[in-house]
Amino acid sequence: MSELPYEIVIGLEVHVQLKTNTKLFCRCSTAFGSPPNTQTCPVCLGMPGSLPVMNKKAYFLGMKTALALHCGIPKFTKWDRKNYFYPDLPKGYQTSQFDLPMSEEGYLDIKSTKDEFEPRRVRIIRAHLEEDAGKSIHDEAAGKADSRIDLNRTGTPLLEIVSYPDMRSAAEAKAYMQELRLLLTYLDVSDCNMQEGSLRCDANVNLHITTDDGVIATPIVEIKNMNSFRSVERGINYEAKRQYDVWQETGKVLGELPKQTRGWDDSAQVTRSQREKEESADYRYFPCPDLIPVVVTDEQIDEVRHEIGDLPAALRDRLESEYDLTTYTADVIVNQGLGFVEYYLELAAASGDNKLAGNWVQGEVLRILNDLEIGISDFGVSAAALAELLKLIQAGDLDSSKAKDVFTVMLESGKSAAAVVEDLGIEKVDESALEDLCRLLVERNQRIVDDVKNGNEKAVGALIGQAKKENPNVNPGQVRQICLDIINSL
Amino acid sequence: MSLTRQDVEKVALLARLKFDDEGLDKMTSHMVQIVEYVDKLSELNTDDVEPMAHALDVFNALAEDEPRASLPREEALRNAPKNDDEYFRVPAVLGE
Amino acid sequence: MSIIQKTATEQLALLQAGELTSVELTQAYLDRIEQVDGSIGAFLRVESDSALQQAATIDAKRSAGDSLGKLAGLPVAIKDILCTKDTPTTCGSRMLEHFQPPYNATAVEKLLSADAVILGRTNMDEFAMGSSTENSAYQTTQNPWDITRIPGGSSGGAAACVAADMAPLSLGTDTGGSIRQPAALCGCVGLKPTYGRVSRYGLIAFASSLDQIGPLARTVDDTALLLEVLAGYDPLDSTSVNRETPAYSQTVHQPLEGLTLGVVEQHFSEGIDAEVATSVQQAIQVYQSLGATIKSIEMPHADYGIATYYIIAPCEASSNLARYDGAHYGYRTDQAEVLAELAEDGSDEGPLVRMYRKTRSEGFGSEVQRRIMLGTYALSEGYYEAFYLKALKVRRLIRQDYDRAFEQVDLIIGPVTANPAFAKGEKTSDPMAMYLEDLYTVTANLAGVAGISLPCGFTSAGLPVGLQLQSAPFEEEKLLRAAQMYQSATDFHSRRPELS
Ligand SMILES: [Zn+2]
Question: Which residues of B touch A148 (CB under 8 A)?
Answer without folding.
Answer: 84, 86-89
